[in-house]
Design brief:
6 helices; 5 strands
């Protein structure tokens, strides 16, 4: 069976609404594509790796970490420079900068074989969530990963928003 892909960020959710959204979407596999698997501050502490994995396990949702899909520091620095230039706070960003997109596609996605993600999934995976932190998919690299999966594997993609 070909899985459906959903994307989700943590910003804008509280703990209950985040996990409720995953359950409503019938997510059975959670794919964390963050470089650093932590979020600063108590508001989003539930998204720190160990707490997140424990809660997902309670809900019967498999956890998969794909660091190869996380942007490198050099790629993140390109977005930070663009944000600084436009005086945009990270949590207020609504779109990725062209420099980030180009660098991410070159440094991360060019080497990414979408079939490798499918190979990492359990045979019964039906709904796979691509997870990072940004609220808006367009402001996060998960949208670039989802786009590649949609185009190359013809997978359905839906964004879960708070």
């Amino acid at each position: 069976m070909t899985p459906k892909i959903v994307t989700i960020g943590v910003y804008g959710f509280d703990e209950d609404s985040f996990f409720d959204a995953l359950c409503r979407a019938k997510v059975d596999t959670f794919c964390d594509i963050r470089s650093r698997r932590g979020v600063r501050g108590s508001t989003y502490a539930f998204a720190n790796s160990l707490r997140l994995q424990a809660r997902l396990a309670e809900l019967g949702i498999r956890y998969l970490y794909r660091k190869d899909l996380a942007p490198t520091k050099a790629v993140r620095d390109r977005q930070a420079a663009a944000d600084k230039e436009t005086k945009t706070a990270k949590r207020k960003r609504t779109a990725l900068g062209d420099a980030f997109i180009t660098a991410y596609r070159t440094e991360c996605l060019a080497a990414f074989d979408p079939d490798s993600l499918l190979a990492d999934l359990e045979e019964d995976a039906q709904v796979v969530a691509l997870f990072c932190v940004e609220k808006a998919p367009e402001a996060c690299h998960r949208s670039l990963v989802a786009d590649k999966l949609a185009k190359e594997l013809k997978l359905e993609v839906e964004d879960i928003l708070p």
